[in-house]
Amino acid sequence: MPLPFSPPTHHPDQLLHLVALSLTPFSWRRDLGERLRAGQDPAAILHRLLSSRPAQPGLDRASLAARASAAARRGADCGLHLVAWCDASYPAALTVIVDPPPVLWVRGNPASLTSRAVAIVGSRAGSPYGLSVAERLAADLAARGIVVVSGLARGIDSAAHRGALSEKGTTVAVLGCGADVIYPSEHRDLARQIESDGAIVSELVPGTPPQKQFFPLRNRIISGLSRAVLIVEAGEKSGSLITARCALDQGRDVLAVPGNVLTGRNRGGHALLKDGAKIVESADDILEELGLPPRITRRANEPEDPVLAGLPVGESCDLDALAERTGLASARLLPRLFELELAGIIRRVGGGRFARV
Predict the structure, then answer these.
(1) Integer Cα distance of 249 and 313 in angstroms
(2) pTM above 0.85, yes or no
(3) Residue 314 pLDDT > 80, yes or no?
(4) Architecture field, domain 306-356
(5) Is cis: bond before 184, omega within 30 of 0?
């Protein structure tokens, strides 16, 4: 991977020129990125890009300058941080991707964008098993100080954010709309929890509504901010596979969790595994891929997992007895048992009974 670009000290005019560059078509991003990495002045880049292409309505210096100024005012009114390419706080990991965003709009803590991070993404219609695995892996990573990056979408994404928050960890949500526009709307409370220590981030100017074409584009930022991308559950046409492709193009590690082969919910994830993605059964597999020591399984004075507490070593137990001991309904108990089985912590011993290994 090439060395991260070290941006020069900026002056205020550069910020508005970079915001103006962010308003140009996404098809210009690769050319734009090459020029930014070459150290060219944002005003000069804007002039060259506009002068080398056919004129289009709204794509002239005056129109872009007016829209950039309006965006900056709205961002300030909303309390957003403007993290521009020329700013020392711009994430170094994004400077090396081929199509970097000229600016990022951030709610929360911009410093969370520069920490060691892993992306966890998957289906919006995650199964109980997938949701449980995403939440548990995110919690375990957060407990080790890893920032969890995802997209605030329904399903696996939101489970990953909640898992990180459950350990009072840091998580970052990358949006396909303005950072002041939370989508889906039912995740407003979740977004507020995320920004208390982590960040809500978007390359789109404030006020931009969610649109279908923005979501595949934001996936390159999810992977770009991360050391590795974990696919928990993804169908054959899942948008998560776009994130995986972006990660591969960016030189990031791609990992996947195995799923039920009977439902078809994870055919996309299994295709990644067939193509060489690392199989993940626990957070230790991710930490190993990052070159980090295994996580501590349980801190002093931390209560034991209720399922394991109800299943002493040397004793087997059926589902009804476990439900009675743990107080968990079967809908929550079964996914947890499956996860523990995949991790090699418990095994089936016949007659519908389970035992600790």
Answers:
(1) 46
(2) no
(3) no
(4) Orthogonal Bundle (1.10)
(5) yes
